[in-house]
Amino acid sequence: MTERIEGHGGELALAALRAHGVREMFTLSGGHVFPLYDAAHKNDFPIYDVRHEQSAVFAAEAVAKLQRRPGLAVLTAGPGVTNGISGMTSAFFNASPVLVLGGRAPAFRWGSGSLQEMDHLPLVAPVTKHAETVFSTDDIPRAVGAALTAALTPHRGPAFLDFPLETVFSVAEVELPAVAGVDPVVPDPDEVGRAALLIAAAQRPVIIAGSDVYAGDAVAALREAAEALQVPVFTNGMGRGSLPPEHPLSFAKARRAALSGADVVVVVGTPLDFRLSFGDFGDAKVVHIVDAPSQRAAHVQPAAAPAGDLRLILSALADHSGDRADHSDWIADLRTAEDAAKARDAKEMAAETDPIRPARIYGELRRVLARDAITIGDGGDFVSYAGRYLEPAQPGTWLDPGPYGCLGTGMGYAMGARVSHPDRQICVLMGDGAAGFSLMDVESLVRQKLPVVIVVGNNGIWGLEKHPMRAMYGYDVAADLQPELRYDTVVSALGGAGETVAKAADLGPALQRAFDSGVPYLVNVLTDPTDAYPRSSNLA
After folding, report:
1. Measured between alpha carbons, how far is residue 470 from residues 137, 388, 465, 473, 537 in Å?
2. pTM of the model
3. Given this structure, which CATH class describes domain 4-175?
């Protein structure tokens, strides 16, 4: 039965948002969107405001990622929307169902030079799944529903609507449309069968599971398939934690041995991009399993490429009834490599050197982080170490910028994570370069009583650029920051707390104080600027 409602554009939008499961709004104040605030205020709909619009979008994306439901950002016209474009683009690359509602200069004066008058759609259309200007007040519920359905339909992603001033301020009486469900994408059974035969017959298969496994609620199906076929599993992005570290098929450190020795590489729910050698695994056959046909790689030709609901595909793999090769020797070989790498990492994480090596920070964090802690990476070099040394124990506990690599996600992600999980540890791992993008939004966290712990790896350089540039040219430029800058005093000035740590022995107590504080707390760790994360170029 449909519901008939009357109200201004903000009230109509809010009714449609609530019907689709949206529970909060992230925003930076702007007059073009006052009716949305009015509706939220009158209906006890939580509003969280920030100091830069990108943080509003990143906060909405964190909600979308962690809770697997729509996140909402509301941005005022013109610069409000353009400031949010990096957040929308990150959500696009991360397949995050974020809805951005923008203000817009009045349509009846269009072309006359109203405040912040610009056409947003040509800018946002390339990085959204749905972009529309809603010119009629009574069309707002329909438009909100269509945008959210697009955002939630695999392959998921952001959607954008903007409302001319007179549209959102005017009043209308409408019927609230019924919520349209999103039907699962049914995979081609022949393609799934081809993949199952390849995996079952392989002598040395490997699974790499990515963010869409979590986003598509396919974690249980992944475990079922891995256990049924006895295939070792590596993860990236929000796929991390899909198998707990103690699971006999869970691997993290032996990736090089696995990919160099595998005869079949099964990539599930993540693109064949620079993080995975662009899908080139030597002589190994590639099975690429994606949640929608649009995600099939165009630059490689996989041996099989099932596309559709990942739960259906992985469950079908688990149910494969044909012959299966024995993988016990292969798993044992990888376990030997894994254990050797863990032993090396343990030594690095216990290093007593001063200046502090980044590995030691993660050794100490592993002692204080709970199994359900949300860890957030915002940085380049420093966060690369996080990916190596931290092993999420549960799915849905790891947030990083994803393949777009946008810095500045940290405080927005922290806000969205704290709103999503009020009772968990929230820990942001931030390079000192990344701190320059969003640290002012600590004030937003303080003001709205959203405590998080921020650990800054402070080496005084852009580490991801300085070392490679020096290796290429013998010199570097535009790669230095102020050494030993007191980011902790910035946080204290904004109402939080913090301290600087210069000695490895002081790390553990400082981190414990941070997690016990109950306020936004920054641990500013002075790290060795000569310690560079080993990597090959990802620019190609």
Report:
1. 58, 24, 8, 5, 14
2. 0.96
3. alpha beta
